[in-house]
Amino acid sequence: MTALLRIEGLRVEFGDGDAPLVAVDGAGLSVAPGEVVGLIGESGSGKSLTCRSVMRLVPRPGRIAAGEIEFDGRDVLAMSAQELRDFRAHDAGMIYQDPFSSLNPVYRIRDQIAETLRVNLGVGKADARAQAVELLDGVGIRDPERRALSYPHELSGGMRQRVMIALATASRPRLLLADEPTTALDVTTQAQILALLLRLRAERAMAVLLVSHDFGVIAQVCDRVVVMYAGHVVETGPLAALYTNAQHPYTRALLESVPELESAGRRTRRPGIAGVPPELTEVLPGCVFKPRCRHAQPGCEAISMALEPVSEGHETACPVRPFAGTGSAPTARAGAQR
Amino acid sequence: MSAVDVLGAPGPPPVETAAWRRRARGLRGLPLQAKIGAGILAFLVLVALLAPLIAPYGQNQLDFDNILSAPSPSHLFGTDSTGRDVFSRTLYALRVDLAIVVVVTYIPLPIGVLIGAMAGYFGGIVDSVVARVIDVMIAFPFFVLVIAVIAVVGPGVKGVLIGVPIVAWALYARLARSEMLVMREQPFMLATTALGYSRRRAILRHAVPNLMRPCLIYSTLDMVVNLLLLASLAYLGLGAQPPNAELGSIVADGQSTLLTAWWVATLPGLVVVLFGVGAGMLGDGLSDGRLRGGVQ
Amino acid sequence: MTDQLPLLRVEGVMKEFGLRRTASERVARSAAEAHRAVDDVSFALRRGEILGLAGESGSGKTTLARCIVRLIEPDAGVIELDGVDVRAASGPELRELRRRMQMVFQDPYASLNPRMTVATALLEVGRVHRRPGAENGEQFVRDALERVHLGPGIATRRPRELSGGQRQRVAIARALAAGPEVLIADEPVSALDVSVQAQLLNLFGDLRDELGVAILFVAHQLAVIAEIADRVAVMNRGRLVEVGETAAVFGNPQDEYTKALLAAHPHIRLSRVAS
Questions:
Q1: What is the b/e burial string over B62-73, where b = at least 16 CB atoms within 10 angstroms of the residue's CB?
Q2: Which of A237, B142, C40, C213 would bridge with A314, disulfide CB 3.0–4.6 Å?
Q3: Which residue, A271, A274, A304, is CA-closest to A287?
Q4: How far is CA B98 from CA A217, C52, C66, C134, in A?
């Protein structure tokens, strides 16, 4: 299966050219058509920057310094301004964590959607308004005719995110970039939004790159997972493989940190991860996770952070493999939720 | 109080830069604009402080052999109609004016900040009363009020020293109050209550230091307004009385000879402009940095 | 510990907020419609327990937490700390009650004064409340930091020089420096990364077990409450809909809202990996 989106060796830098601060260093991932890929990491891991790079929307003064981003065989980084606009308008949509600040407070919902349709798809004015209502209906907003006339502040957070999804998917893009789309929402609303994303994926064979810090969210909707730490991709693989047989110490430590409802009433102690992620100014030789790693050993400062295969589609940046043979727990219930 | 005492005290612009430096990765973190502005102000303050050393002549030293002579190496700014050296007079005038400006800007500032902080913190009736008083003070024609005070106490700098602070505190109180209304809801202010601190401590130790920043930035603008006010009053003959010089009175003196001896009025006037430009750049630059620094 | 007198007793607490009035309503002086943020809430916090207060945004849990220490004045109800009426207290008596009930806020950066070093902030609490040991500043600060497992090295730093987890530890250390019997923690781990969150949850557990502090732990993440709380209270639209032992409530919820909340919670649903 050829990839719809392929990122390789992506490097995002801040600061001046002589001594740049490297926020994303050699990150790579791919998304197949219709696939939902989760990009997980903690704050400062570079996951959002990686996601934004696809749209070439890295916030200033950051810049993409190296790497390849290929969408359906086209080189995104080489696109002209016009091609880039076209790409953003038709091929890829993006939604963000805060659906409120992404909507203009002084225009009605209908007009904002209609504007997008007119500008990006060349739909006529009257048609655009009618389609806007249809789109709202399509993302599960009840009473869309009335809601279309609302202003953003009159909608709840969940509804605003639905509007954003309607906007981002109006042109039926083949890829949706979702940057922490449910982080600002309550769990009940979150479940509805995730269900909506899965429905759109099924209806339109739309691929999704879902950025999140929440393993619960990732587990609910993703086919594959990419784990980032300190600007590097440290592990990637199918959801079940990653959750039950993580090979990178960081992935394991992170998974072990996640609290679970199932432990209700038991006094649970989770180890967490000692220390803090490296500052952008710190340049660590070899493995970036070594200073916090429980399995660090001599030689870790010399490894390359290149991904090595574990099994079909499962790759890790840790050559030490402290867990080799310990994983493959039998009760994998990955995806059982869906 | 003498001019030297006032200027010799740690002046507000240096305090501002020092506080800033601690916060924002050194002076180098400041926008270029602020650095240039601070440089201009520092230069003017230094020159004013050192006036007795730099000035080649006494400010009231007459020289009837050299009446209205054009700028030259011996008289940098030329001489006026009684042969006094305009450069020397400008230096002494700057000294007096800067001293007064600093007093009338930085005495009302802490008073206004305190009143505004209390109004914003307590809210309710206290706030309503203070807010109305502030409105009245600000709505009152400032210039007229100062002239009215001068009418009572007589011409001279006394009128300015009394008249300006009567109104100026309200500007700072308004600014501090509006910032406080926002800050009051911030977790670190809530925390002072939750920690069981007294209100006095919450306001003085925790709120005021954070309120000072916007007020100090605003004060750079206020200084310019005050300097212009001072010059205007002196121009009208309501400032320092002859023979002592103020920038405004030198300009007024030179007005009658503007066509034959442009330097008498123009060059001191340019010093006022230079001060305005410096203070303006500093203020702009600092508020720029403040926005980008985004403390809270 | 079933029959002992509760340390903190909250009964029938009520708080209404007037909705913002429109200009015409203001002119007409008509009363604004009231929104009942906290509606007849009663519960007890026992000595040495962690009571989780769960609910979604807008459920009134933060308002309730703030009412207890009177950061917000409740409109009605009884709040008693160890038999002392909190709502009737004022002046020094109120400040002493607040010392005994300390608060930890969600955003550890915003809750620390940006201009103060860690040592200054900690010492200030000790001096204001004349805590034993506060005369010897250095030792006091060192002890306060040690209680939250921080080294003395960070004493001279300011909040912005600390990581999120360190800031929240400092905020907790500051609360503890007052020598409280009750901690009211309002979403204390919500702003933190999961690996840091785990360590802070352990810290809260230690505070309960080692210092015997009773903790009201407000959180919207049910799984967090599941792991830290002895008992849980679920709040919805200003009302407490269910209170009970954590295992009982989460294992066999009685209220419809609790059930819906639990159903929507994202599970990892994968067995734990061994390390």
A1: eeeebebbebee
A2: A237
A3: A304
A4: 63, 61, 50, 46
The verdict on a CB contact (< 8 Å) between A274 and C199 is yes
Sign of the C-alpha dihedral computed for residues B235, B237, B238 and B240 taken in this order: positive
Give me the residues of A, 295-324, that contact C with CB < 8 A: 323
Strands of C84-85's sheet, edge to edge? C34-45, C8-18, C76-81, C84-85
Pairwise CA distance, residues B55 & B44, whole Å:
14
Contact residues on chain C for A294, CB-CB shorter than 8 A: 275
Question: Are the beta carbons of A197 and A178 closer than 8 angstroms?
Answer: yes
Measured in whole angstroms, how far is the alpha carbon of residue B136 from the centre of its chain? Answer: 23
Query: Would you report the helix, strand and coil content of chain B in percent, each value rounded to 5?
Result: 75, 0, 25
Q: CB-based contacts of A83: which residues, under 8 Å, 6+ apart?
A: none
| Model confidence pLDDT, tens digit, residues A71-110 | 999 999 999 999 999 999 889 999 988 777 778 888 899 9
- Beta-ladder partners of A74: A71
**3-state class (DSSP) for residue A228:** strand
Chains C and B contact (Cβ–Cβ under 8 Å for 3 or more pairs):
yes
What order of strands is seen across the sheet that includes strand A63-71? A21-31, A5-14, A63-71, A74-75
Contacts of B123 (CB under 8 A, 6+ apart): B181, B184
Per-residue confidence in pLDDT tens, chain C, 275 aa:
445 689 999 999 999 987 655 555 566 666 556 788 999 999 999 999 999 999 998 899 999 999 999 999 999 999 999 999 999 999 999 999 999 999 999 888 789 998 899 999 999 999 999 999 888 889 999 999 999 999 998 999 999 888 888 999 999 999 999 999 999 999 999 988 998 999 999 999 999 999 999 999 999 999 999 999 999 999 999 999 999 999 999 999 999 999 999 988 887 654 433 33
In the sheet with A314-316, reading across from the earlier edge strand, the strands are A92-95, A175-179, A207-212, A36-40, A224-229, A232-238, A314-316, A308-311
Q: Which residues of B touch C71 (CB under 8 A)?
A: 190, 193-194
Single-letter amino acid, residue B264: V
Give the residue carrying structure tokens 């909705």: C19
If contacts are CB pairs under 8 Å, which of residues 181-240 in chain B contact chain C? 186-188, 190-191, 193-198, 201, 205-206, 209-210
* Angle at the Cα of A7 from the Cα atoms of A26 and A255, rounded to 5 degrees: 70
Is A91 in contact with A100 (CB distance < 8 Å)? no
Q: What does the block give as tokens for A278?
A: 């490296």
A294 interfacial to chain C (CB closer than 8 Å)? yes
B14 pLDDT above the threshold of 90? no
Find the CB nearest A273 among C195, C201, C245. Answer: C195
Q: Residue A54 in contact with residue A68, Cβ under 8 Å?
A: no
Chain C contact set for B208 (CB, 8 A): none
Query: Are the beta carbons of C112 and B191 separated by less than 8 Å?
Result: yes
pTM to 2 decimal places: 0.82
Distance from C-alpha of C46 to C-alpha of C233, rounded to nearest angstrom: 13
Q: Do B195 and C114 touch (CB under 8 A)?
A: no
**Chains touching chain A at 3 or more Cβ pairs under 8 angstroms?**
C
Residues of C in contact with B184 (CB under 8 A): none
CATH 2.60.40.1180 fits B46-292, yes or no: no
Q: How far is C262 from chain A (nearest CA, A)?
A: 8
Chain C CB within 8 Å of residue A331 CB = yes
What is this model's ipTM? 0.83
- For residue C246 the two structure tokens come to 């954590």
Would you kindly state where each structural domain of chain B is located, as residue ranges? 46-292
